[in-house]
Amino acid sequence: MKILVLLAAALLFPQEKNEAEELLKKCSEKLAAAKSFQCKSQLIAHGPIGDLTMEHTFRCASGNKLFFEVKGKLRNKDFQCRIVSDGAKLCVEQDGKRTESETPEDLNKTVLTMIPRVSLMGAVSSMACPVPGDGKPLESVEYSDFKMGKAEKSGDRELYRIEYKVTQVKPTRATQSVETPCTLWIDSKTLLPVQRDMKVKLGNGDHIFRETFSEMKVDEKIDPATFELPKETK
């Protein structure tokens, strides 16, 4: 009888939703619904395999049009990558190599959904640079251990701070880590991501990644020339 009473109580009074998990969901949903999105981000990492500094420029617009450029240094060597989709074809240029493929029909929606959850580079590369055996990006990771931190101030902005764990359940391009603890700061007014800290396991040790977003614009006009595929050089 006691078990039946407890079961009935659980059905009548469902558990309260996790505030941090709901906040991450709202952040993802806002970006996924955007007609266009632009931002820049800086990614800095320190760890046993060396330091990394990357500058990212990202733009996307309706019709699966996307532009993503990475410039920086990895182990004191210059690194550059450019990914462009004109809505029909997707072009990836990296290390002097160029590949073209058909643009995935869910390119922008998936990338925008994943930006708050993983990282900007991880979101784009999971769609643009698949590897054999990859699962669909949204089905390849799970999120758990959500915790809501105290609100913080950054200038005039109030930021929500949430912690969670990303667990890789299928092969992905983004990271070799099975579990990645993340801390994400979200603007309380815009519900856009501001900064993220990640502890990523690479090689024989943990690496601390810090990603900082800037110049974010939602639903503003973007020059169509941005999404023209780069001309192939001979």
Task: Kindly describe this structure.
The chain is an alpha+beta fold and 234 residues long. It has one domain (17-222): outer membrane lipoprotein receptor (LolB), chain A, CATH 2.50.20.10. Helix content is 20%, strand content 47%. It has 5 helices and 12 strands. It has helices at 2-12, 19-32, 107-114, 120-128, 137-140; strands spanning 36-46, 52-61, 65-74, 77-86, 89-94, 97-102, 141-148, 152-154, 157-168, 179-187, 193-202, 205-218. Strands 1, 2, 3, 4, 5, 6, 7, 8, 9, 10, 11 and 12 form a 12-stranded antiparallel β-sheet that branches. α2 runs antiparallel to α3 and α3 runs antiparallel to α4 (120-128). Residues 1-15 have low confidence and may be disordered.
How much helical structure, as a percent, in the residues?
Answer: 10-25%
Number of domains: 1
Q: Identify the CATH class.
A: Mainly Beta
The fraction of residues in strands falls at over 45%
Shape: globular
Low-confidence stretches: 1-15
Radius of gyration: 19 Å
| Helix and strand run | HHEEEEEEHHHEEEEEE
Termini separation: 79 Å
Structural class: alpha+beta
Question: Major beta sheet, specifics?
Answer: 12 strands, antiparallel
State the CATH architecture: Clam
CATH superfamily: Lipoprotein localisation LolA/LolB/LppX
Per DSSP E runs of 2 or more residues, the count of β-strands stands at 12
CATH topology: outer membrane lipoprotein receptor (LolB), chain A
Count of helices?
5
Mean of all residue-level pLDDT scores: 86
Summarize the structure in short:
With about 230 residues, the chain is an alpha+beta fold.
